[in-house]
Amino acid sequence: MRSGFAHGRYELRNATMLDLIRTAWNVAPENVMGGPDWLETDRFDVIAAAPADSTPDTLRAMLRVLLEDRFGLSAHQDSRSIPAYSLTARKPRLQKAEGTEETGCRFTPGTPPTTACANITMGAFAEALPGLRGASGYLFNYRVVDRTGLNGAWNFTFKWSIRTPRVAAPAGAGETIGLFDALEKQLGLKLELTSIATPVVVVDRVNEKHTDNAPGVAARFPAPPLEFEVADIKPADPESRDRGASVNIQKGGRVSIVMTLRNLIQEAWGDFNSELIVGGPKPSETTAFIVTAKAPAPELKDGPAVWNGVDIDSMRMMLRKLLIDRFKLVAHEEERLVPGYALVAAKPKLRRADPANRPSCNEGPGPDGKDPRLANPMASRLVTCRNMTLAQFAKQLPEVAGPFLTRFVEPVPDATGIEGRYDLTINFSPWQAFRNAAKPQSGDDGTASEPNGAISIFDALDRQLGLKLEPRKVKATVLVIDSVNEFPSEN
């Protein structure tokens, strides 16, 4: 979802109903309960007029009314128990703050790094702890709640080793000090995994089709323009450091893009999978071009807006028109068989779903509450999909797997032949961690290093769920480049 508000125009683009509800109630997506299967798949654009001085709370209240009026949304607030870390005091070794120090925690690199906190309450420290640099390698996505019973503000310093799930600790890094040990041994504070009651929004009812827009709405919010006001294209200097792919939309609709022709085509078709673009001259993959253009947009003097006044989808349509005009691009879409994967059954190990849950995939442990990431940080992805058919799970896999599958077509078809709904939890490593683990490593004596615990999405599916991603040809929509010039026409 992309959102923004400026000059009385409130936009939420490419938003699922889950996005709209979590925005309207200002809660995390995992704290929205219930709802139909399509809550996280159907997408909407909301463009609304609101008083220019509207506050975030006012916008949320108006969005709630809009969802009730147009989608028949009925929801209520409740609470549920979710995992969290409890911060308690055993034998605290802290200094009382004088109250004149600058409040907050400061990170200083070193071996190990140092975190110095000043004039901070235990409640504020607990809230800030998951966001400290490197803390996610220990706490993952769990909250920390203050149960120390310590009042007032404090000064303290502690040293601890950052544990990254992307790469193993470098040789010669010295003794590591974990976050949990550092807090307990140096500060007399202890972190323990527990659960806490958390406010949630429960969706009782919502319609998939919204009521029609009122007469005159289309005139008030005209269709976005499909052409840049002005545009300049020139080849990038081969020696320049500014040849990497980038898109920059500045205030007033000024657009700057640096990409190869192939990447420009990919961007213009909505970040189309590059493996599904067929044809085009070979230089389109090597020569970079600089596009400098002006898109119709208000000159914004204050406040954010959707991509500084330009919706990204509108910008892509303008870029497509530019490529057609200046590179004489002719292209069409068609269905073809392309390399991909299908989800198949090996020795299925599946748990029947709790029908009370909405079909969804979220980062975090399954119903048993077990978190294998705590013991193996190299496998730092823990995804739980609830109340899903295997067809729905297969469709989610490209998004869950990320770079493991980005070179292949999505969605992944379900070829398991298994009916029913299941709760599925899978624990694996991010692509970067697995790629680094696959590289040959050795110790100072030349001997091979020990395995570091990285798990690919393929092994995780096989070992943990008894499912496999099997390479095969699958049907997909490809973009066929019929003809395109190597260089653009003159500016």
**Number of separate strands:** 22
Give the count of helical stretches. Answer: 11
Strand content: 25-35%
Terminal CA distance:
35 Å
Give the mean pLDDT: 86
Mind summarizing the main beta sheet?
4 strands, mixed
Q: Tell me the number of structural domains.
A: 4
| Principal-axis shape | globular
Kindly name the structural category: alpha+beta
Helix content: 10-25%
Residue runs with pLDDT of under 50 for 5 or more positions = 166-174, 300-305, 440-450
- Biggest sheet, strands in spatial order? 3-11-5-9
| Rg over CA atoms | 26 Å
Question: Can you describe what's shown?
Answer:
It is a single chain. The strands form 6 sheets. The chain has a 4-stranded mixed sheet. The chain has 11 helices and 22 strands. It is of the alpha+beta class and 491 residues long. Helix 1 (17-25) crosses helix 2 (56-71). It is globular, with a radius of gyration of 26 Å. It has 4 domains: 2-73 and 206-220, no CATH class; 82-198, no CATH class; 230-327, no CATH class; 338-478, no CATH class.
Key terms for this structure?
single chain; alpha+beta; 491 residues; four-stranded antiparallel sheet; 33% strand
Condensed summary:
The chain has 491 residues and is α+β, with helices and mostly antiparallel strands. The protein has 11 helices and 22 strands.
Topology (SSEs and partners):
Layout: E1 2-6, E2 9-16, H1 17-25, E3 32-34, E4 43-49, H2 56-71, E5 74-89, E6 95-96, E7 104-108, E8 114-121, H3 122-128, H4 136-139, E9 143-146, E10 153-159, H5 179-187, E11 189-205, H6 217-220, E12 230-235, E13 246-249, E14 254-260, H7 261-268, E15 277-278, E16 288-294, H8 312-326, E17 330-345, E18 351-352, E19 360-363, E20 381-388, H9 390-401, E21 422-428, H10 431-438, H11 457-465, E22 467-483
Parallel strand pairs: 3-11, 5-9, 15-22
Antiparallel strand pairs: 1-2, 2-4, 5-11, 6-10, 7-8, 8-10, 12-16, 13-14, 14-16, 17-22, 18-21, 19-20, 20-21
